[in-house]
Design a protein that fits this description.
2 helices; alpha+beta; MerR family transcriptional regulator; 27% helix; 16% strand
């Protein structure tokens, strides 16, 4: 699958591209619980790197065609 986010771009809260993974409140909950994609905190500003967002999305990938043996 192609990347959902541009690897060499930084995203800040309010960028519409972030809505694909969650709204502003959901992202705040994840940051508070230390979940979700990696981020930078610069003062009060939150910044997400595109490469980190793509890595987080890929880590959550589920392939139903791959079944574990039981």
């Amino acid at each position: 699958m192609p990347n959902l986010f541009e690897n060499d771009r930084s995203y800040v809260l309010g960028d519409p591209e972030l809505d694909i993974i969650g709204d502003r409140d959901k992202l705040a909950q994840w940051r508070h619980k230390m979940k979700g994609p990696a981020f930078y905190r610069l003062g009060r500003k939150i910044i997400y790197r595109g490469a980190d967002l793509n890595a987080w999305v890929e880590a959550g990938r589920v392939d139903p065609s791959v079944r574990g043996t039981s």
